[in-house]
């Protein structure tokens, strides 16, 4: 860092997501599938901190740190560099170090990488004081980074359309209690799960209809009625995830037998999200799964929660220039 630069750091907290409904339409010319999804941000958080540095770099801590790339492919770093190109008169680029404290499962269908990208955008906008980058422009930049990134800026419960990047909030009151099952060694690649979905449909001679959100789910969400929401949960990618990881069928069955109101693979999987009727039921279910369920991490979460938010901005003034020694005053 050059002398005279402040050493500010900005920390952002960002949640992961589950898809309460994921309807997958046909593959488009650009390779993406048209989707209609209902996202919900849940209280499993990563913390992303940015600070000025000599060169662009990233480090990762937390239980899933060893599964996250620390090179140029890290989505948080990609996001920071992308926003860096929007800095007016920045002349030389001003690199940052990105520190990720990771709790969101990696390659688990909870959009951990996308969440880190959204957090890096919010953190760097604050660090660099980019007042000209309003929320609309941030949404636009986010959508270029990945289909889920825009939603993680907003959080809450929202409909995602297009390839998932067009986000409209869903109004509702109350909260849902989730128990998440995270399997080790079962990571799934999102493109492979979409491709498997296409393969299964082709084999069955099915052509998907144009996807649209179901009114049953939207009605249930208005009151956050857990039983009604549970009845309306649906994920078109679930069959593909189970086809690639057959052990997931047993996980869904185990949670259902232990009293979950609803169960589904989250997004492209393999995380399985169980919906409980109350906090007490969620505790009972998580204890039951930990004791008698298939081996995996068990995480309790509530939703909806807000999207990426600045939680700390430490401002350190630049070091004062060296003072000349004061000699005796003469004359
Ligand atoms: C499964 C979900 O998480 C559900 O919200 C998303 O659809 C995936 O979103 P994401 O991880 O942000 O995905 P992207 O980084 O945009 O795309 C990764 C790859 O997933 C596939 N993909 C993704 C989104 C979409 N609507 N259609 C697709 O076919 C494409 O092969 C794409 O190249
Ligand atoms: N900051 C990051 N955090 C996690 N994974 C990252 C990150 N940057 C790049 N990746 C890569 O992205 C891949 C997908 O990870 P991610 O946790 O986003 O998956 P996912 O939750 O299944 O995504 P989605 O739900 O959006 O489809 C990982 O295998 C990893 O190599």
UniProtKB/TrEMBL annotation:
UniProt-listed InterPro entries: GHMP_kinase_C_dom (IPR013750), GHMP_kinase_C_sf (IPR036554), GHMP_kinase_N_dom (IPR006204), IspE (IPR004424), Ribosomal_Su5_D2-typ_SF (IPR020568), Ribsml_uS5_D2-typ_fold_subgr (IPR014721)
One Pfam family cited in the UniProt record for this chain: GHMP_kinases_C
UniProt keyword Nucleotide-binding present: yes
GO molecular function, one term: 4-(cytidine 5'-diphospho)-2-C-methyl-D-erythritol kinase activity
Domain GHMP kinase N-terminal: 74-156
Protein name per UniProt: 4-diphosphocytidyl-2-C-methyl-D-erythritol kinase
Ranges where the GHMP kinase C-terminal domain occurs: 218-289
UniProt record similarity statement: Belongs to the GHMP kinase family. IspE subfamily.
Gene3D superfamilies: 3.30.230.10, GHMP kinase, C-terminal domain
Highest taxon above the source species: Bacteria
EC number(s) given by UniProt: 2.7.1.148
Entry's Gene Ontology BP terms: isopentenyl diphosphate biosynthetic process, methylerythritol 4-phosphate pathway; terpenoid biosynthetic process
Organism of this sequence: Ornithinimicrobium avium
Function: Catalyzes the phosphorylation of the position 2 hydroxy group of 4-diphosphocytidyl-2C-methyl-D-erythritol.
Keyword Kinase appears in the UniProt entry: yes
Pathway in which this enzyme or protein is active: Isoprenoid biosynthesis; isopentenyl diphosphate biosynthesis via DXP pathway; isopentenyl diphosphate from 1-deoxy-D-xylulose 5-phosphate: step 3/6
Active site: 17, 148
UniProt: ATP binding residues: 105-115
Catalytic activity: 4-CDP-2-C-methyl-D-erythritol + ATP = 4-CDP-2-C-methyl-D-erythritol 2-phosphate + ADP + H(+)
Alphabetical UniProt keywords: ATP-binding, Isoprene biosynthesis, Kinase, Nucleotide-binding, Transferase
């Amino acid at each position: 860092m050059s002398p005279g630069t402040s050493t500010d750091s900005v920390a952002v907290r960002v949640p992961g997501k589950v898809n309460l409904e994921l309807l997958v339409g046909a593959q488009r010319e650009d390779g993406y599938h048209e989707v209609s999804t209902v996202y919900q941000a849940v209280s499993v958080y990563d913390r992303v901190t940015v600070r000025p540095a000599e060169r662009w770099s990233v480090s990762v801590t937390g239980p899933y740190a060893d599964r996250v790339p620390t090179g140029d492919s890290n989505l948080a770093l990609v996001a920071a560099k992308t926003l860096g190109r929007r800095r007016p008169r920045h002349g030389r680029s001003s690199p940052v170090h990105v520190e990720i404290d990771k709790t969101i499962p990696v390659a688990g269908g909870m959009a951990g990488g996308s969440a880190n990208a959204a957090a890096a955008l919010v953190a760097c906008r604050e660090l660099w004081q980019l007042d000209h980058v309003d929320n609309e422009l941030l949404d636009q930049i986010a959508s270029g980074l990945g289909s889920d990134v825009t939603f993680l800026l907003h959080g809450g419960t929202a409909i995602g359309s297009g390839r998932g990047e067009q986000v409209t909030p869903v109004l509702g009151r109350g909260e849902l209690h989730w128990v998440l099952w995270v399997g080790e060694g079962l990571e799934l690649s999102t493109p492979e799960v979409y491709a498997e979905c296409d393969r299964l449909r082709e084999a069955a001679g099915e052509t998907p209809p144009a996807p649209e959100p179901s009114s049953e789910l939207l009605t249930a969400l208005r009151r956050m009625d857990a039983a009604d929401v549970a009845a309306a949960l649906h994920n078109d990618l679930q069959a593909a995830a189970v086809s690639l990881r057959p052990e997931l069928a047993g996980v869904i069955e185990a949670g259902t037998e232990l009293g979950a109101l609803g169960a589904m693979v989250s997004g492209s999987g393999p995380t399985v999200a169980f919906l409980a009727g109350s906090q007490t039921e969620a505790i009972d279910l998580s204890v039951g799964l930990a004791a008698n369920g298939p081996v995996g991490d068990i995480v309790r979460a509530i939703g909806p929660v807000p999207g990426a938010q600045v939680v700390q901005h430490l401002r350190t003034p630049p070091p004062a220039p060296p003072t000349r020694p004061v000699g005796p005053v003469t004359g």
